[in-house]
Structure of MarR family transcriptional regulator:
Amino acid sequence: MSNGSGVNAESATGLPTDRLIAELEEELTDFWRRGRIRARDRSHQIDPDLDPSCYPLLMSVARYAPVAMSQLVGALGVDKSTVTRQVDAVERLGLVVRRPDPGDARARVIELTDQGRSRIDAVYATEIPRWRSQLAQWDPADIRTLIDLLHRLGVGLGHRE
């Protein structure tokens, strides 16, 4: 099968060639780089003092709250001490709060504060129209396919539950 450039995209066994895999790695690397830039920009929109490394944690809390520290460790793929430091940092900024876990008196769950929710909603209010504009010419089925393929790749690489 040709990829349009005259280079075979698959070997005789139907498996992707090394070059095709390398191209995928290059595109993903560039995509992640742009994602880090967006995360930095969005974190500073939320709070100028928010460390961009805390942005994924904050988005996970926004998505799953109330969320236990152990869930954040698993969702973010970092160790407990990193999650603790990041929760401490966003708590000092008034964006999250720790509360007793109703299911385990020894544990705490993390939730957004009203201020945290308000600031994240403000970022969403500016970002969703940008996404909408970028994807306006896409067929909704293509967007769904992209979502499904990204999920499948993440699961296949073992980085997603």
